[in-house]
Design a protein that fits this description.
With about 90 residues, this protein is an alpha+beta fold. It has a single domain, classed as Rec A Protein, domain 2, CATH 3.30.250. Helices cover about 45% and strands about 10% of the residues. It has a three-stranded antiparallel sheet with strand order 1-2-3. The chain is globular. It starts with 20 loop residues before the first helix and ends with a helix.
Amino acid sequence: KTGQEVAIPVKYSQKGGAIWREVELYMLCLQWGMVKKSGAWFTFSDGLVKEAEEAGIKMTQKHQGERKVWNYMSENEDLLKFLEEKFSQLI
């Protein structure tokens, strides 16, 4: 045991369940290299932006602050569905 605590991102009063989809998908994007962090800036990869645009989803590539990325994702249901489908194919 390392003594470290592991937590699942939960957002109460979330429509459709308690798992915080935006944060979970954001973390997967980070792990798979689809989002890069540089200081306080977070940038979606060119490849991901291109794929999304080919699917008819316009993405803002650069965001300042992690919460801004989460908010951006939560305001774009089409983007969330696109990412869910992408990861279900990858995993």
